[in-house]
Amino acid sequence: MNALVVAVVLTVIVVAVSALSRRYNLLNPIVLVVVGLALALIPGFPVVVLEPEVVLIGVLPPLLYVAALETSVPAFRHNLRSILLLAVGLVIFTAVAVGLLVHALLPQVPLAACLALGAVVAPPDAVAATAIARRIGLPRRLVTILEGESLLNDATALVFFRVTVAVAIGTAVGPMAVAQQVMLAAGGGVLVGALGALTAAFLHRRTRDPLIDNSISLLTPFAVTVVAEVVHASAVVAVVVAGLYLGHRMPTLMSAASRLQMGAFWRMVTFMLEGLVFLLVGLQLREVLADLNTPFAEVAGLTLAVLATVIIARFAWMYPVAYLVRLLPMVRRHGTGIDFTGATVISWAGMRGVVTLATALALPAMLAGGMPYPRALFVWLAFAVIVGTLVLQGMTLPMVARMLKVQADDPTRDILAEAQAQQQASKAARERLESLADTASPDVVDKLRALTERRSNAVWERLGADRETPSAVYVRLRREMLEAERAVFRAARDAGRIPEDVLVRAQRDMDLEESMLERMD
């Protein structure tokens, strides 16, 4: 019962803080972390300890899966070079830089353990950067690169962490063994993800029940994760591969009702999970400080050094790589390189999150031969990097983007592209209608022609419209009409003239129509 009460209280806090953040246009992840830090300092507030397995197996898979479902595969493939340079190259570079620094400052701690700490703090969070990037309106290409990095960097960091921990605790790890682990993690993850995606696609094609479809979608990331863990492959890679494949194929795998319900379901799940994750990160402050017995001056110096290294390493990697990549003939020819402004924004968008904390909590208690090391200090350093990057970089990223005059994507170009595609789609729809016109009455065919024409015109009307367009007038008046219809049905239900089932069915039809009106608005 106590656990249930705590869960309800935390959920209420997430919802309330999220509502206030949206009301006052604040960055929700940062506000939740700060609220968690404040609550952790209140005596008597429940201590909620994050278990690494819960995060890595219970929380991370669905968040990665949804992010992969919503990622554009063509855009991901187009920016794959930049994504891999960040998700693989930068993670290793950061881990080595932090490991060498900590070993230089704490020479009594073996290098392998210091490199393990580097792997802990190396990967930016899969949620924070892209959530903030979308909120402040960064260009779509930069968001794609940040999303792609966050989808894959955890796999690199976890493999690096696994290898360095194996060395630190005395497990024999030679070059061949390391290569085998990397191949098993990466190759096995791709294979498990592909098999999971094909299995889920097979099941989706054979059901039209939205509830079953959503159940399959919910189980997919967890099933893929469990199989990957059993065969010691990378669960992160497996989930991402499955999500990318299924997201790209979703229009042909599910019915319209299933896709609508699944979209609403996953939006609610990710909203709650992301909120709880950031709140719980802040709540770990008391637990992290409980075991810390290192002198304050040493803690402060190490914290500043590690935080600075994490931030500087991203710039030190990003600028040279962005310049060198632009020298490639293919990049010059297609103009796919990253300019100074883009490199700066990406460099500053390196917020860490819950995976860093969960991995830190998975650090071994003892090293090889029972040798002690400052594990509590390492956990604190990871926690400080999370809070420091989230607060410092997260709060200032909008300002950095404004100072650099980063231009968001031109909405006019998007509307023009949509209008052109809609015109072609309307033409295809009319041709299909004409081929089937003899199977329906002329009145029905005329109504469908008018509907197609209205959908085609609605997009063009949004181009440079300074006054209320005919489509906007239609939406406004139809909403008023629907509200009047709802009032009549409610009155009929209250008076006992119709049963509740009739009201629910009519209400659902009107809600669906209004959701379509919102798409036109």
From TrEMBL:
Q: Name one GO cellular component term.
A: plasma membrane
**Quick one: where is this thing mainly located?**
membrane
Q: Which GO terms describe its molecular function?
A: potassium:proton antiporter activity; sodium:proton antiporter activity
Report if keyword Chaperone is assigned.
no
Biological process terms in GO annotation: regulation of intracellular pH; sodium ion import across plasma membrane
Q: Which Pfam families match?
A: Na_H_Exchanger (PF00999)
Where is the chain membrane-spanning?
A: 29-48, 55-76, 82-106, 113-136, 156-175, 182-202, 222-245, 265-285, 305-328, 340-365, 377-397
Location comes to:
Cell membrane
Check the record and name the Gene3D superfamilies matching this protein. 6.10.140.1330
How does it sit in the bilayer?
Answer: Multi-pass membrane protein
Ordered alphabetically, the record's keywords are: Antiport, Cell membrane, Ion transport, Membrane, Sodium, Sodium transport, Transmembrane, Transmembrane helix, Transport
Signal peptide limits: none
Cation/H+ exchanger transmembrane domain mapped to chain residues: 12-401
Q: Which InterPro entries match?
A: Cation/H_exchanger_CPA1, Cation/H_exchanger_CPA1_bac, Cation/H_exchanger_TM
Biological role: Na(+)/H(+) antiporter that extrudes sodium in exchange for external protons.
Q: Which family does it belong to?
A: Belongs to the monovalent cation:proton antiporter 1 (CPA1) transporter (TC 2.A.36) family.
Specify the protein name: Na+/H+ antiporter
Q: What is the lineage of its organism?
A: Bacteria, Bacillati, Actinomycetota, Actinomycetes, Micromonosporales
